[in-house]
Amino acid sequence: MIQTKTAVRWLAYILAVLALVATIVPAYAQQNTAQVDKAVTYIRSQQQPDGSFAGFGAGSTADAIFALSAANQNIAEIKQGSGVSPVEYIQSQATTVASDPGVSAKFLIAALLSGQSPTFGGTDLVVNVEQSYNEQTGQYGKDVTTHAYSLIGLVAAGRTPKAEAIDALKKLQLPDGGWSFDGTPGTGSDTNTTSLAVQALKATGDTSDAISKAIAYYKTQQNADGGFPYSQTSQFGNASDANSTALSIQALIAAGENPQNWARGGQNPAQRLAAFQNESGAFRYQDNQPEDNALASYQAVPALVGKTLPLEGIAIALPAQPGASPDPSASASPTPSASASPDPSASPDPSASPIASALPIPLPSTPPSGGIPAQLPDTGVEDWAPAFALIAALLILSGFAVNRRRA
Predict the structure, then answer these.
(1) Domain enclosing residue 171, as ranges
(2) What's the burial of 400, exposed, middle or buried (CB within 10 Å: 0-12/13-18/19+)?
């Protein structure tokens, strides 16, 4: 009888540990390995001879870097034949995008993900972003997407964004809990911009109720098939699309939600996202637009691996010296090309994607010139947690065996 009670007790412990493991690592992230591999192969095929990636401007290359980093690819080694790497491309374009805070913010994060100092070619991307700050509006740049990317980029670079900038983002939240791409109520909330806003707030450590309000907004946006549209009120329709579903998944995870608990019509958002993948490995934008879509593919990968901002668990290169102080008198630059588009199907905007938090990627054996390794804040599950839980389970089993022998 004593042996039976002991066995039951140990079995309960084992089941508890196994349940913990199941909650630590989203099942869809484990099950999507083959799909991610196919998507990575497709994305790499989109690289151009100059190191960039197909899409809608320079920002698309940053989106591709986010996706490949999330899939644990070494960005510096990605080349088409004897071509150049994405790292070399963003270095060559840094001066060109200097006047565009939206693309500068995306390039900043892409450089850090690639293990590079964000200062190259005489251009300091951190300073570019900081100088776009407008004292009157409290925003970096002129639109919400640029502002959110800027907050994320500054946090990634080890800077502390202005408190007024964080407050400005929260003040731009609309009554329904979402954010519009241009910050105006008339435009209406959309799932894409809201995702970036949620991830930016999470990256800055904000603990206000703005995030819980955003989750309430997402509950009103989910379709019966488990996916998400750009907006339920969009003039272009409200069918689920891969881009918006991926972004919504990342917002949910950033807010501490488990996407698997958001099932509708027999599918949770992750399953609906996976269903958008074509045989080529690419993702289509919508089911009624079945052609391969590069942007949809870039945005899908981070969500498939369950990664969101900030880029947890990865070493980055910080500038050796603080950048120049922002010029309060400098007005925000013209609306950047990184802004989200109100018509996601007609002109999908690369910057509407969130930045996936990358799995650890190899960095140079020595820190990039002018930089030191640093660790981004950790808001998600540690990469060692599943292994730790497995070790705990093995120890429990060992203890059970010892007790059994003693009995």
Answers:
(1) 26-380
(2) middle
